[in-house]
Specification:
CATH architecture of the largest domain: Beta Barrel
Strand content: 25-35%
Number of domains: 2
CATH topology of the largest domain: Thrombin, subunit H
Oligomer: single chain
CATH class of the largest domain: Mainly Beta
Length: 451
């Protein structure tokens, strides 16, 4: 899997943090002029694109921590997403419940006219620090409305690190937005604005998408070309796209996407959202060939189960959590000392399932279940196949022997805020900054150093 992605990893362009890098000068989202009324004009969708360093930065904060959201969370279909109301009157009962059925075979123009007003522009501001100085940033992206009372879906990397978020509707009105929840591992976020009578999108079924299906995206490329539509085709399914160390399975499309489009919807020709446009490959291959027409969207079925959890709980339930901090091995040194390929356990979180199962510092993890682990990416991908509560065999190399440990995976809890804790708890995984060495480690120094 890694080999297939590696030739393009240097040019991977996740959507919209390209904007963050480019917009320090103030090239933020520009609200449109109030549009002239059109017959049947109800809304449109958005495409997503951003710069690699930005999205990698978004996921990289937790890159070397061994927890991941379970890819196989039950997908909640839109038509049954209106769940039983709770006693909390603030819980939305107005979920997206509509799906366009039948073979409408709409034209791209008809899709645009139906859903352009379901698309939004998103502007964020915040501060970033490189350890020496702090600077301000502004960025723009896209999103789409999923309820009449103001719930909006976008990419995590669009709002990552933001201190303020503002949403621009198609009619030109601006609304301050609250971040309801965000999941970096799957690059999905939910916002809320105080508004009523909005026009939500229709949610489709990405499991029914086929290669060759026509698709339409609507968004805000470059943060200034507001509510632009592009059209194309679904090029491939189930592409594992490397967003940092954590791959995300996406739809591939040749629909044109650019920075500023991140977080917008990808439509089928029935007018249903089938994906969240998120990333593209760009640049040149090692042979100098220009990369064109390689865009990617998160399948809507995968996204909606996350969206529902974020709205209901503020975090994604069922995420498999192992409780170890790991470092990629120096493969040359490992081979020289006849050590297996794997990831080096730098630390074990106290009280975690890994500690209970007997995982130790300086172990080398070589497999999770039946999946071989040679890098952190492999471990992260393997964890996506499990849910919290699943019991799996973890294979480690220790003291010249292979040891198999039975681990019942924990559930990752939402990370405490600065207001609730100043230190790492067992519900957190250590980040890159928490580990003394980032990247590859010389196994000789650790494995034979008395650890």
């Amino acid at each position: 899997m890694n080999e297939n992605r590696e030739p393009y990893s240097y040019s991977f362009e996740p959507v919209d943090h390209d904007s963050r890098m480019q917009m320090n000068g103030g090239n933020a989202f520009t609200p449109p002029e109030a549009p002239k009324p059109k017959k049947g004009s109800h809304g449109a969708k958005i495409v997503a694109v951003a710069v690699a360093c930005a999205l990698v930065g978004g996921v990289g904060g937790s890159a070397m921590t061994a927890y991941l959201l379970d890819q196989h969370t039950t997908n909640t279909q839109t038509q049954v997403a209106a769940e039983t109301p709770t006693e909390d009157e603030n819980v939305v009962v107005n979920r997206v419940v509509h799906t366009n059925t039948g073979d409408k075979n709409l034209t791209p123009k008809e899709v645009y006219d139906m859903y352009v007003d379901s698309t939004v522009g998103i502007t964020t501001t915040g501060t970033t620090s490189n350890g020496y100085w702090t600077s301000e940033f502004s960025a723009s992206g896209s999103g789409f409305i999923i309820s009449e009372d103001g719930y909006i879906v976008t990419n995590h990397h669009v709002i990552e690190g933001a201190s303020t978020v503002q949403v621009a509707l198609y009619d030109g009105t601006l609304h301050d937005a609250t971040i309801i929840g965000s999941d970096a591992s799957n690059d999905v976020a939910v916002l809320k604005i105080e508004a009523t009578g909005l026009h939500p999108v229709s949610i489709g079924n990405s499991d029914e998408v086929s290669v060759g299906d026509q698709a339409v995206a609507i968004g805000n490329p470059l943060g200034t070309l507001n509510f632009s539509m592009t059209a194309g085709y679904v090029s491939a399914l189930n592409r594992d796209v490397g967003t940092g160390d954590v791959p995300i399975t996406m739809l591939q499309t040749d629909v044109a996407i650019n920075s500023g489009n991140s977080g917008g919807p990808l439509f089928d020709m029935n007018g249903n959202v089938i994906g969240i446009t998120t990333a593209k490959y760009s640049g040149n291959t090692s042979s100098g060939t220009t990369i064109e027409g390689l865009g990617f969207a998160i399948p809507i079925n995968d996204a909606m189960s996350i969206v529902n959890d974020l709205i209901d709980y503020g975090y994604v339930t069922g995420q498999a959590y192992l409780g170890v901090g790991v470092i990629n091995m120096d493969t040359t040194m490992a081979k020289y000392y006849s050590l297996p390929a794997g990831v080096y356990v730098d630390n074990v979180t106290e009280g975690s399932c890994a500690e209970k199962a007997g995982v130790r510092e300086a172990d080398i993890i070589t497999a999770l279940g039946d999946q071989t682990v040679e890098s952190y990416s492999d471990l992260a991908a393997a964890l996506k196949d499990y849910r919290a509560g699943d019991t799996v065999t973890l294979t480690v190399y220790r003291g010249g022997q292979t040891v198999e440990l039975s681990v019942t995976l924990d559930e990752k809890q939402p990370e405490p805020t600065e207001e609730t804790t100043d230190s790492t708890t067992q519900n957190e995984q250590p980040t890159q900054e928490d580990t003394p060495t980032y990247g590859e480690v010389n196994p000789f120094d650790y494995f034979f150093g008395g650890n």
